[in-house]
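Lab notebook, bench 4. Continuing the backlog of folding jobs that were queued last week. Each job is logged with the same field layout so the records can be merged later without manual cleanup. Today's entry covers BROMI N-terminal domain-containing protein, a 146-residue chain. Filled in by technician R.K.

JOB TYPE: sequence-to-structure
TARGET: BROMI N-terminal domain-containing protein
LENGTH: 146
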Amino acid sequence: MSQISAEDESEFQSVEATAKKHQRQNLSYEFVKYLRQYVESSLGAVMEEETERCTRGEGHAVGSGQDVLVHAVTRRTRESVEYKKMMQTPKNTMMVVVEPLINTFEEDQLRKEEMQGRANIVSQTAITQRCGVQVHWEAMQGLSCA
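JOB STATUS: finished
OUTPUT FIELD FOLLOWS
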């Protein structure tokens, strides 16, 4: 059976770290892509409608220019029912997803603490037993010398 050299191990760890980094970046990219599509599907029609209303003069945009239009459309969109629904849905979804993760994490922490406590008890017992054996051995040595 061949041994892995330190160089090979180091190169493997580097490749593994790079792969994990790319995986995280891809996951982040996919998440942002999903959010963008979600916002577009939830608010696209509202933003278009508000943009048309403001450019036709039906909105409350006072003044001219793109900044005023963007401000007016943003304000009206954020006040819309669709926006409120769009914001609430991810919160509800995240709660459903995150809550079990938190519970699992807490359970794992409790198990880990219990295991550490047990390991400490076992370690202390072993030390006590070793000390007892050593004292017993020393006593036996003292008796045999006498």
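OBSERVATION: The mean pLDDT is 81.
SIGNED: R.K.
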